[in-house]
Amino acid sequence: MDVNIRDSSAYFKCPTLGIFLSTSKNCCGKIDKLIPVLIDLGIDAIELDSPRMTGYPALRPFRGKLMFWCCNNIQSIYIQGTPDECEREVWHMMKNLAMPNGGFGAYIYPQPRHIQVPRENVEAFKRGIKKYGNYSKILPRFWEIPITDEWKKNGVDFVPPVPQLVL
């Protein structure tokens, strides 16, 4: 298994304030077999630059057990996809990684020029976050749509049309 895990941020109980702060890890690679261990260790969130590398079907069982903090898949859709695909991918991340009460957060990859992301794709991802990333605007029937297991982890050809289930 080829996995690289680095600290994204780690927080524990603050003795001064008496509150607990979250713990998260950035994980690169196919990490689904490690996720139960990370949960047992107290990890609250996993940061994934390429969620399709592990695959949505393999990540889905962990919804509600930790938070997925992801950007558009940097090894495929973000760099090779169209702006429309980059925008729609937010819908698919919400559908596959979130639950009605939360569990998914999106972030913009910090150095898009370093990985040669077209500017249009960065802007499209931002539009997707605004359009699909607000839990309060998602209609209840969104969560009832069956989820496909037919995903290519590195392909951009399967980003189906998005049903209008967002206010």
Secondary-structure element pattern, one letter each: EEEEHEHHEHHEH
- Contiguous runs where pLDDT drops below 50 for at least 5 residues: 1-17
**Spatial shape:** globular
Q: Any idea how many domains? A: 1
Structural class: alpha/beta
User: Strands of the biggest beta sheet: in what spatial order?
Assistant: 1-4-5-6-7
Strand content: 15-25%
Helix content: 25-40%
Total number of helical segments? 6
Largest beta-sheet details: 5 strands, mixed
State the assembly state of the protein chains: single chain
Rg is 16 Å
Mean pLDDT value: 77
What is the terminal-to-terminal distance?
Answer: 42 Å
Total number of strands: 7
Please give a quick description of this structure:
The strands form two sheets. The protein has a five-stranded mixed β-sheet with strand order 1-4-5-6-7. The longest helix has 15 residues. It is globular and about 40 Å long.
Please tell me about this protein's structure:
The protein has one domain (3-144). The N and C termini lie far apart (42 Å). The chain is α/β, with parallel strands linked by helices and 167 residues long. The longest helix is centred in the middle third of the chain and has 15 residues, at 83-97. It has helices at residues 35-40, 51-54, 56-59, 77-80, 83-97, 119-132, and strands spanning 3-10, 13-14, 19-20, 23-29, 45-48, 67-70, 104-106. It has a 5-stranded mixed beta sheet with strand order 1-4-5-6-7. It has a two-stranded antiparallel sheet with strand order 2-3. α1 (35-40) links the parallel β4 and β5 (45-48).
